[in-house]
Structure formats: structure tokens, C-alpha cells
Amino acid sequence: MASLRSFLQCNFDILRKTFVILFVNVRDALNQAMDEELERDERVFLLGEEVAQYDGAYKVSRGLWKKYGDKRIIDTPITEMGFAGIAVGAAFAGLRPICEFMTWNFSMQAIDQVINSAAKTYYMSAGFQTVPIVFRGPNGSSAGVAAQHSQCFAAWYGHCPGLKVVSPWNSEDARGLLKAAIRDDNPVVFLENEMMYGVPFELSEEMMHKDFVIPIGKAKVERQGTHITLVSHSRCVGFCLDAAAVLAKEGVECEVVNLRTIRPLDVDTIEASVMKTGNLVTVEGGWPQYGVGAEICARIMEGPAFNYLDAPAVRVTGVDIPMPYAKILEDHSVPQIKDIIFSVKKVLNM
Amino acid sequence: VQNPPSPLLSLWPGGTRMVVSARSFADFTPQASFPIKKCDLHRLEEGPSDEALLTREQGLQYYRTMQTVRRMELKADQLYKQKIIRGFCHLYDGQEACAMGIEAGINPTDHLITAYRAHGYTFTRGVAVREILAELTGRRGGVAKGKGGSMHMYAKNFYGGNGIVGAQVPLGAGVALACQYQGNNQVCVTLYGDGAANQGQIFESFNMAALWKLPCIFICENNKFGMGTSVERSSASTDYYKRGDYIPGLKVDGMDVLCVREAIRFAADYCRAGKGPIVMELETYRYHGHSMSDPGVSYRTREEIQEVRTKNDPISMLKERMLSNNMSSVEELKEIDLEIRKVIEDAAQYAISDPEPSLDELCNHIYARDPPMEVRGTNPWVKLKSVS
């Protein structure tokens, strides 16, 4: 047995390269996307805390400094407001910066630069000044990092016109959306998830192509269904799929929509799904009040899909509290698969 | 007719026109050297020259530019009081030597960013008076098509016009980073006021600019008041040229256009030599209050304002220098004043009569280089169109 296992392990690498489908985790997908875009366009550069010599706080930028050097991979001091402003200024003057926030919690120190200097400038200048910048970093809850390090900013940034806000779930999303974000001439807020970094996903040969991009502003139906629509983004998409697998055994077929982009929101895809299934549950990690799910429900109310609803649309969200530390409390602060299943059954009156 | 090389003068309708005066050109002194106030230095062995050479052409150009800014700001005051300009309006009269001196000492290919007291810089960076006034009156002929207003005017190598106090400083350092990255030997002039000088993000910018030796000239325009708060009441240290600490600094007489010019030339050379950033403090004064909603006399006396006007006005000082050195005549300068008056009147006429932006423009310019998209209006039935 042991020799068989080691035989398989030695040959796995060869097998991996021979097959057209690769397993790539989200971290590596992000890393490869940045590497390819840095190579493609010399105006692209990365700055942030520990992105260069430390290989990235979460190792997302591993190897990039070694390959591209000090000019293009820049370690900054711990001064978010300053370096975010510097990044925006560099974008004004013709470069294409990727500004990393170690987590999006720290972006609050710099939020004025993201909103007032980046998001609004194209409009205020009546189209004269573009701001081709990507702000990226891990967003939302992690594991045991407590209240100040666990906030989800999808709703905050999703609120602002002039920004594009993107929230990938898997490696395909991470790769395609990051490449699209870097190539986009607008300010893009790129919300990653730390707990997804180590999760591997299949990537086809097509997805590994250096020009593979996923259009910003388009959601993806990850699973077809007929009884109810689950709309989600980032890590919760995985929970929705897990919940759907459990519910399928009870004869409930869930359609799972992966938003991919928070702003501009792909209402058409959500509406089409709701008009097909007649029921809607939104699932997110962030707080409920004034959140992503609240926006989706409001849009459904205001649009043609309302007439197709058999029951009120509901939201599954993080609990409306600052994130606690103790594991048992933390586990009960975020949506779990059983919460999704429970909500689906309630909506379907099961 | 001589055509001085300045790009500013290409703005004037029909090119530069020289005055027909009683005296011929041969009578005027072509150039003269003027002693200028020595700059206080911080961490510098030597500073700018204490003498400035001024040619007749330059003198006339500086006079024309500063007088235009002066008249333009006074016209804006008038239009604001007539309620034709609304919202925020922060006027620059009194500080003209700063904008003119800086522009005289840098190249058009260099970069500049400032805060909200920006009309003067918008002009010196190449935007016509009529486009500035029309932006203030919110018309479609404004430099930002009426969508920006007083604080959000942009031009090539001019990054506004910024409304959030201090935010422009990291932005300017970022422009300097781009200059360094692109290896184009350009510098970025990054302006802020005495009120902004205590902002944390400015010190963050100082740190990174010094660390990475960015070609950034940080300039504090110290007009002694941050809104209604005097520098003594806001700042534990009012030596703004020293606030860069490890960054060398100069304190400059901001009312003397030649002093400013020599200082900025010195600073630009310093940055272009790859020595890193430098801080300048321009001591200047604003005649108006902080904005049009501030009469400007509750925190300072009318006597103080009047004293600066009579003893230290930047335009008067230049005029006196030129006249006393026979570089121009009273008639010639008066002729220039009349020309400027006409330009301002025409511009004001334009700014009043130009139509407001079309409502079709409302949702445009959200995203750059994107296909047209729909934008929600005030209610769910209103679907508006947005193009890039």
C-alpha cells in the first residue's frame, strides 16, 4: 500500500502536467494572474505591505519580487492612507497599479482615497482623468481573527458609483476576474477571501490561457435548479453548493448563482433565475443591515421577477454583531450550510 | 512684434499683441537683475540664488498672467454675489505670485496638483479663463463640462482641484512615483496649505517620498489661516518648511514672483538630480476669506488686509520693479490691463450665456472605456443611460 501511494505521489506531477485539467488553488490562481499581467504590460506594478520580500502576508505575491524586482513590486510602510493615495496618483499619471491591502479592514484608513480620489474622479473630470487601479486583498471573516479583522466590505464599496467591485469565489473566478480587473481602465475593488486561498479547483486549458478573462458585471449560474434560487458571492457560494447537494437528496433542486461581481450587479441573471424558480434566498457572509442581500431583494421587488415569487425573498447573512473570538461563538456568527438549508425549507414551506 | 516663448501666451486670442506706445522698444531695458529675499534653509548647505534675472518679456508675461488671475478671481467674486456661481468658491487673489512663480520655474511637461483654492493654477496650467468661469457657473462649456465645479478642474499634467484637505498630497507623491518609474526626468509639484500641513497623510507621503527618493516638490502655501484658524492656533510648529524633518526645506517669500521662481528652479533641479523630495514653504496671503461664505474679517483685521495690499501686493511689486527699471511704461501696463479686462468680460459673458449641461449628460462618465450601461434614476421606473 505504502509503495503504491508513493508511486502515485511521484507520478502525480507528471500526470498533472499531462492532463489538460489542472488543480490550482485560489492563491496560485491570483499569483499567476498577476505574474502574467505584470509580464504583459510594463505599466502594471504591485505595492502593499510585505508584498515583495516577504512574498506577501498570505503568500499571494510569492516569487513576484524575485522575478520583477524593486521597481515593480514595492514594499510599503504601514501607512495605508499614504500608499493608497500614492497608488491612485500613479494611476492618474499613466501607470496601472495593483494596491494590496493586507486585509480590507485596513482599507478604512484609506477609504477616502478609494472613494473620493479614485472612484469619483472620472465623473468629476467629465471623462478627462481615468484611474486604472486595482485595490485587492482578503475580505470578510477568517478564522479566529476577531472583530477588527473580520469585516466584509462588499456592501460599503458596492454602494459607490464609479467603482467596480468584484468578489471571486473559486480559482477560475480569481484568475479571470483579476486579469479583467487589471486590464480595466476603472478603479476596481477586488475582494478576496483568506479562507479560500488554499482551496484547489479544477482549471481547464482554456482557463489557463494567458488572455483568459471573465467579464466584470456578469454572474454565473454554478448549478441549475428549478425550485429555488440561491444567490451568493465569495466563499458562501461553496456553502450554497453544499446545501444544494444535501437538499437534492430531499428532492429540492436549487439553482445557485455566483454573483462574481457586486457592482455592477448582474440583475438580469438573478431575475431570469427567480422567474424560473419562483423563490429566492440570498446568502452572504457580511452583516444583514443595508447589505448585498438587501440590495438584491429590493431590486427583485422593483423588477419583473416580483410577480413570479411564490414567497417573500429572504436573506441568509452573518449575525449582526462584531465578530467574536471563541471558536464556538465565531462558528455561530457566520452562515453555515444548515442555515441555508433551514431558510430554503422555510421559504418553500417544507 | 515679439512672441515670447511662453506657452501661456498662446492662449491669448490672436497671439501676443504688443502695445503701441509713445516710446519704441529700443527705449525699454531688455532685462535687469533684482535682489531677492534669501530663503531660510533647512538641511541645505546652499539655497537658491539671492538674485533673479528678469527679462522684459518675462516681466510682461508674469504681469499679464498674475493680473489675469487677479481679475478672474474678482469676477468670480462678483458672479458669486449675483448668485450665478453657487456652492464652494475659494478665491486666490493675493497669492498670484505663487502660481506664476511656480509655472515660470517648471516645464509644461512637469506635473502639478493642488487643493481647492485652484483657479489660479488651473489658469497657469493652461486652461482658458472662459472655461474656468463656465465651470464655476456650471455650464457645458466649462473645463469639466459643468460636472466638477470650482474644486474639480483638470488639465494635462494638472490633477486638480481636490476637495478633501490633504488628500492631494499622497496623490502628488504618486504622480512623482510615476515620473520616476517612467524615467522621464519630470517632477511633480504637490501643493497644500498651512491648514492641511498637519494632516497625517502628508507625513506618510513625506516618509515614502524620502524613502524612495521620489521627484516630488512638496509646497506649503502658508497664507496664515486655515479657514478661520490662524497658524498659531493650529500648529505646534509653524515652521512648515521644516516639517519634512529629514527632508530638506526652504522658506520662500511667496509674494515675490521672482523669489518663487528661483526657489522652484532650485527645487526642481534638486529633484531631477535624483536627490529625492524637497519641501518649500511659500509665505503668502489671501485677500478674500477662506471661501465666499467667509467674510474673512472675524479672525483678522481689515487693517492687516489693507497693509498687505499696500505694502506687499505681488502684482504691484512686479509693476514697480519694471517701471523703476524702465522695463515697461505705465501706458503699456495699462494697455495690458485693458486687454485683460476685455478677456475677463468676454469670458464672463460666455460663462453666463452658455447653456447648462444637457440632462443626457447626467449619468455619463461613470466608467471609462466601457459599453453604454443603464443607471437607476430616482425611482425604479426611471432608467437612465450612461456612456463613457
TrEMBL record, chain A:
<keyword id="KW-0670">Pyruvate</keyword>
<dbReference type="InterPro" id="IPR029061">
    <property type="entry name" value="THDP-binding"/>
</dbReference>
<dbReference type="GO" id="GO:0045254">
    <property type="term" value="C:pyruvate dehydrogenase complex"/>
</dbReference>
<dbReference type="InterPro" id="IPR033248">
    <property type="entry name" value="Transketolase_C"/>
</dbReference>
<dbReference type="Pfam" id="PF02779">
    <property type="entry name" value="Transket_pyr"/>
</dbReference>
<comment type="subunit">
    <text>Heterotetramer of two PDHA1 and two PDHB subunits. The heterotetramer interacts with DLAT, and is part of the multimeric pyruvate dehydrogenase complex that contains multiple copies of pyruvate dehydrogenase (E1), dihydrolipoamide acetyltransferase (DLAT, E2) and lipoamide dehydrogenase (DLD, E3). These subunits are bound to an inner core composed of about 48 DLAT and 12 PDHX molecules. Interacts with DLAT.</text>
</comment>
<comment type="function">
    <text>The pyruvate dehydrogenase complex catalyzes the overall conversion of pyruvate to acetyl-CoA and CO2.</text>
</comment>
<dbReference type="Pfam" id="PF02780">
    <property type="entry name" value="Transketolase_C"/>
</dbReference>
<dbReference type="GO" id="GO:0006006">
    <property type="term" value="P:glucose metabolic process"/>
</dbReference>
<dbReference type="InterPro" id="IPR009014">
    <property type="entry name" value="Transketo_C/PFOR_II"/>
</dbReference>
<keyword id="KW-0496">Mitochondrion</keyword>
<dbReference type="InterPro" id="IPR027110">
    <property type="entry name" value="PDHB_mito-type"/>
</dbReference>
<comment type="function">
    <text>The pyruvate dehydrogenase complex catalyzes the overall conversion of pyruvate to acetyl-CoA and CO(2), and thereby links the glycolytic pathway to the tricarboxylic cycle.</text>
</comment>
<dbReference type="GO" id="GO:0004739">
    <property type="term" value="F:pyruvate dehydrogenase (acetyl-transferring) activity"/>
</dbReference>
<keyword id="KW-0630">Potassium</keyword>
<feature type="domain" description="Transketolase-like pyrimidine-binding">
    <location>
        <begin position="24"/>
        <end position="199"/>
    </location>
</feature>
<keyword id="KW-0479">Metal-binding</keyword>
<keyword id="KW-0809">Transit peptide</keyword>
<dbReference type="GO" id="GO:0046872">
    <property type="term" value="F:metal ion binding"/>
</dbReference>
<keyword id="KW-0560">Oxidoreductase</keyword>
<dbReference type="GO" id="GO:0005739">
    <property type="term" value="C:mitochondrion"/>
</dbReference>
<dbReference type="InterPro" id="IPR005475">
    <property type="entry name" value="Transketolase-like_Pyr-bd"/>
</dbReference>
UniProtKB/TrEMBL annotation, chain B:
<dbReference type="InterPro" id="IPR017597">
    <property type="entry name" value="Pyrv_DH_E1_asu_subgrp-y"/>
</dbReference>
<keyword id="KW-0670">Pyruvate</keyword>
<keyword id="KW-0597">Phosphoprotein</keyword>
<dbReference type="InterPro" id="IPR050642">
    <property type="entry name" value="PDH_E1_Alpha_Subunit"/>
</dbReference>
<keyword id="KW-0786">Thiamine pyrophosphate</keyword>
<dbReference type="InterPro" id="IPR029061">
    <property type="entry name" value="THDP-binding"/>
</dbReference>
<dbReference type="Pfam" id="PF00676">
    <property type="entry name" value="E1_dh"/>
</dbReference>
<keyword id="KW-0119">Carbohydrate metabolism</keyword>
<dbReference type="InterPro" id="IPR001017">
    <property type="entry name" value="DH_E1"/>
</dbReference>
<keyword id="KW-0479">Metal-binding</keyword>
<keyword id="KW-0809">Transit peptide</keyword>
<dbReference type="GO" id="GO:0006086">
    <property type="term" value="P:pyruvate decarboxylation to acetyl-CoA"/>
</dbReference>
<protein>
    <recommendedName>
        <fullName>Pyruvate dehydrogenase E1 component subunit alpha</fullName>
        <ecNumber>1.2.4.1</ecNumber>
    </recommendedName>
</protein>
<dbReference type="GO" id="GO:0006006">
    <property type="term" value="P:glucose metabolic process"/>
</dbReference>
<keyword id="KW-0560">Oxidoreductase</keyword>
<dbReference type="GO" id="GO:0005759">
    <property type="term" value="C:mitochondrial matrix"/>
</dbReference>
<keyword id="KW-0460">Magnesium</keyword>
<keyword id="KW-0496">Mitochondrion</keyword>
<comment type="function">
    <text>The pyruvate dehydrogenase complex catalyzes the overall conversion of pyruvate to acetyl-CoA and CO(2), and thereby links the glycolytic pathway to the tricarboxylic cycle.</text>
</comment>
<feature type="domain" description="Dehydrogenase E1 component">
    <location>
        <begin position="65"/>
        <end position="358"/>
    </location>
</feature>
<keyword id="KW-0313">Glucose metabolism</keyword>
<dbReference type="GO" id="GO:0046872">
    <property type="term" value="F:metal ion binding"/>
</dbReference>
